[in-house]
Amino acid sequence: MKLWVLRHGEAVSHARSDAERALTSVGERQALASAARLHDQPLDAILASPYVRAQQTAALVHGVLHGAPAVQTVPWLTPESDPLEVAGHLQALGLENVLLVSHQPLVGNLLSLLVHGNLREPEPMQTASLAELHGDWPLAGLMSLHAVNHP
């Protein structure tokens, strides 16, 4: 399995709620820069948080990837989601090539769980950072971190 974990691009600092924060123009450019790293990757699914900034990031990525599957919105990719729950959902999907578009602290904690088997070493992920993991299963401690790219 290849799993890509993308943190959304830079977002405005204030909105009516955290879920409604939109990308800035810098965030849009960051998302497109990260999308370029995925141009030749076969994706079985693009899964995104329902928050506006993640939806916008996922839409920008989808827009530049020819033949990519439609973005699916899932409620288990919000900032405070449980990494164990996310790993369970990924395992149940049984797909080979998946892109997740989400937020900190979830993305850093998920990477720590999948690579180190615990939540003590969250990966520092800047806005629009893209991590690539490889492994047979998306289980705690069974994936390897191939690369983390920052825009």
UniProtKB/TrEMBL annotation:
It holds the Pfam family His_Phos_1. It comes from the Bacteria. InterPro entries: His_Pase_superF_clade-1, His_PPase_superfam, SixA. One of its GO terms (molecular function) is protein histidine phosphatase activity. One of its GO terms (cellular component) is cytoplasm. This is Phosphohistidine phosphatase SixA. It comes from Pseudomonas baltica. The gene is sixA.
